[in-house]
Task: structure prediction
Amino acid sequence: MNIHEYQAKERFRAAGIPVPPGEVARTPDEAESIARGFGGTVVVKAQVHSGGRGKAGGVKLAKTPEEAREHAARILGMQIKGLTVERVLVTPAEDITSEAYVGVLVDRKSQAPTFMVSAEGGVDIEEVAATHPEAIRRLAVDPRYGLLPHQALWLANSLYDDPAVMKRAAKAIGQLYRAFVDSGASMAEINPLITTADGEVKAIDAKMSIDDNELFRRPEVAAMRDTSAEPPSETKAREASLSYVKLDGSVGCCVNGAGLAMATMDLVKFYGGEPANFLDIGGSSNPEKVVAALEIITSDPNVKVILFNIFGGITRCDDVANGIVEATRRIDIKVPIVIRLTGTNEEQALEILERAGFSAFTSMDEVVEKAVALSKA
Amino acid sequence: MNIHEYQAKERFRAAGIPVPPGEVARTPDEAESIARGFGGTVVVKAQVHSGGRGKAGGVKLAKTPEEAREHAARILGMQIKGLTVERVLVTPAEDITSEAYVGVLVDRKSQAPTFMVSAEGGVDIEEVAATHPEAIRRLAVDPRYGLLPHQALWLANSLYDDPAVMKRAAKAIGQLYRAFVDSGASMAEINPLITTADGEVKAIDAKMSIDDNELFRRPEVAAMRDTSAEPPSETKAREASLSYVKLDGSVGCCVNGAGLAMATMDLVKFYGGEPANFLDIGGSSNPEKVVAALEIITSDPNVKVILFNIFGGITRCDDVANGIVEATRRIDIKVPIVIRLTGTNEEQALEILERAGFSAFTSMDEVVEKAVALSKA
Amino acid sequence: MAIFIDNDTRLVVQGITGRDGSFHTRQMMEYGTRVVAGVTPGKGGQRFEGPAGESVPIFDTMDEAVTETGANCSVIYVPPAFAADAILEAADAGVDLVVAITEGIPVLDMARAHAFARDRGVRVLGPNCPGVISPGKSKVGILPAQIVTEGPVGVVSRSGTLTYEAVFQLTHVGIGQTTCVGIGGDPLIGTNFVDCLAAFEADAETGAVVMIGEIGGTDEQEAAAYVQSHLTKPVVGFVAGQTAPPGRRMGHAGAIISGSAGTAEEKIRAFEENGIAVAKRPVDIVGLIQDALA
Amino acid sequence: MAIFIDNDTRLVVQGITGRDGSFHTRQMMEYGTRVVAGVTPGKGGQRFEGPAGESVPIFDTMDEAVTETGANCSVIYVPPAFAADAILEAADAGVDLVVAITEGIPVLDMARAHAFARDRGVRVLGPNCPGVISPGKSKVGILPAQIVTEGPVGVVSRSGTLTYEAVFQLTHVGIGQTTCVGIGGDPLIGTNFVDCLAAFEADAETGAVVMIGEIGGTDEQEAAAYVQSHLTKPVVGFVAGQTAPPGRRMGHAGAIISGSAGTAEEKIRAFEENGIAVAKRPVDIVGLIQDALA
Result:
């Protein structure tokens, strides 16, 4: 789960990291009044779950409250990478002496939270990693000990020469690790961590992703979810315990298992079609889940055909077939449905489906070709 | 640092352990009014830093508030193993179905916090360990992981058959570990952990020792120190950063280094005397420390002679000699002082001391014999 | 022969009395897995009834289960909040292999659990995996037994149903398997492709390997390099997720393209560059394996 | 020969610019210890001036210090709040031996630090110890150099000044030492009696060993059993604290009799039962060693 900059900053502040003040506005009026409260130059920043806000014009400097209002008016409602900006963060502009990058994420290879820091902040760390990796210092944190004070200092040591600044940054790095662990995060990032003329360090941007699997035990973090920042269909899918990702194509896919679901989408593409979504209904033959899946898929106006691809392993195909039949009875589907089932009790399942008037297949390739054809009809 | 039962119970409660209510009384009146508040039978328990309260008559059952008052009157002011009872804890009597022992301490061999639990609670665990060690289940906690839930359950599993009780006890054991770590304890103990007729578990006694080295970072724990529970001389020694333990003999000892201080006491005994104290002044030749040491030793009316035993290593003997001379000028000492110095700059030191009129030796045995003789004069 | 599990596998089921645990325990017993014990705290002393009238003792703790029955392998069907601790308990109790089926374990819990298991030299398979089956010998996990048959192909995969698909098609044309391993869809897994490739290379009965990857991470790239440098046996590969958008989690917690790393294209290229025959469609796996075994 | 440190010891001083650190660094340099680096965060790039005009580079981190100078040993003079982390930093940086002088480190910090060092195979001496000196070769810590001389006796002790006392008396009668080790007065120490006894047994130049124990714990008992089963060289023992009351801490955090364990009587009995000649008074150590070497 991604959270907004302003939310990540709240978590960072609570962990003690020096974060400049800032308030969230949902209207140009609010932005103006916040800017007036701060006085002086402010920054108006779009709050969306997406990188590249700056390039998209979502971050603007405002010298006066009126200017803040104008920027907010332009930014609110703007689309950035398909996401609508609903809020802006208004925060005093800082006098920046240097910009560094400090981030921590769960690294697959070291199987541990891993820090990356670089004196080249304010830019995309991926780019730094690609063009001059020697500018990045890395450290895998042994999760049994946490980030040790000397390790934080070792990281800060690569960013700053001034001992006082180095120690302040080490402290902030330690606090970032604290925030990361206490939030159940999979990634937390300060980019840039700035220094000011008087040697203070401050986090002027903040990013954090939460491990969805941590949410059950962190209700205060789960409450940070912003459903307005995702398509309503994904909210609905999550509530129905379905894995769903909306895409731009016309072949609605409903598959059991994530790997098979991806392979199905790939095969749609292989045969010249475009998948409308990723959807994993899991191992269940529960009609309720099938109903929810069908409702989600059909709510996408681009969908021209619905493709089921079910592998019956532990799940019996006849159970799933009954679930599909019942679900389609309960909701009115306007687009054709093609179904492939194979595995346990395949024959009975095909019979059930054909009796109910569905095109039923046992070959994955055949059913995908058929779906692609229908999507272009 | 030892803390009282009622203080340990506060820590346990804060960690979530089920601890029955209880209030502290400093007078019989208070005890009566607390007992009235609870209603029913209460227990009146002496609060002293010592085991064996029960045998000493420091724990009494009271059926009525008046009886509570009477018991409190008897217990308050009582001496238990040389310590005066200043407070009693008044707590409702519990209906006890079973008594178990649950304790955790830092174990030298495993270099880890180590749990001991036994279904034979309410008695001295040392005795259980000596007579039937198989009745104790032990577990060393890897400090990097803490007490894991399954480990707590494994411990509880040896205490109870009833699954619900077992799970409640496992929870309490986990909470005890939390309290132990969060208090910077070196030992924490529930003895007994009782069960009631309805299957609840409760900690009806509580003991905890704090690692002195943790106090600097735990002011809320340090504030629990009860200086009324130790001789004033030990309070004073601690404030002067001296290691001091009061004993019953007549030879006051002032030594640099803990090992040498113990060896000096042993030698006093070897030559037929009795040490009045353990006192390590550390490596310092600072007159202030010597003054504090002399004040502490001379405040003990049993002291008949003061014995200095100083090994000059890094510390120079002449510096220490000067410190002793200056300190004795500043306070008036009524008992003889004998001094042994050896090591670096020994000759100069002996000269300084003899000029100031002290008996000065270089042999440890000689000086101790002399001190013992003086203590009997 | 086979890898990881065989006729000597003595299994204890953690969470044996739960809905999934009891269902799959019966399935495993039916297949012939030697299930020697179950663990459910608070149910120690009871017995679990198998499908054919046989019964298995239930213990409160793994320690007792292993001590009493000599179990050397455990499988975990406990809810995510308790699963990491169950892995630690199994590792502590001294089994050699822990198969963690549970999906949804917090990743920081797993970071600690993997460190713990590494310290003790215990192999963890998963979590969030379908388990492992050595046809004709033993099955540990949730893989459907009816789709496998004995034969010369080793199968290793990050996904469940996609593996079933491939294995089913192999079995359908009469090509059997030595062992099929689902390594799991989480970002931090205990046994990776390289571990399985090394085991298949060392297994005399395995003649060829099918390796099924997906987007996310760079395990496939490292596996490809390992194939080039260490494997004498032919490997057929498939990678799911060519149409997955970057930055979105595709069901599996580990199936997400972060930055430029972890795309299907990168993985397919790594496979091809290191001598792995890549199937464009799942159905092509069969033909490539037939060629490899020919 | 000698144990733990010798002419090949290349020392880095953690906390070199502090009051104790700078004083003892000069003492060590004067004795001839090869001090190759110092560490004080924030003072990297400066130099530490030795007593004879030579100077030593200071680094911000142990990692740099070890990488730049090839140090293989570190000594710690940092305050208790930071000392456990300093031990971890040293262990992480790859030295073989960490000598922790600092007194007053919380015991739970040390439990973690010892586990960390064990994982990495790094020897920790102490904490709360005076260090180690191999006369004529190297000194690491705070032992007074003028009381030692080269010779055949290995000395190991839990206490500082009591050791000085014994060593001074040996030197006084012309009996020198291979190495004198202060293992420290804390309850959790990295190197114990048995470790030192094993090293002295393996050291060709050591002809006899003095072992000075005190109340608290059962390390002396285990050491006595080890002497019986593993040592061919004679051992002379002394135990301080016969007059110490139970349950009271005698200066050292580890010097406390808990329950029935850890009394001086128990330790002396264990010494005697295992063939260790026990000195009744510190002064008797000399005679017993003379007998042992005769």
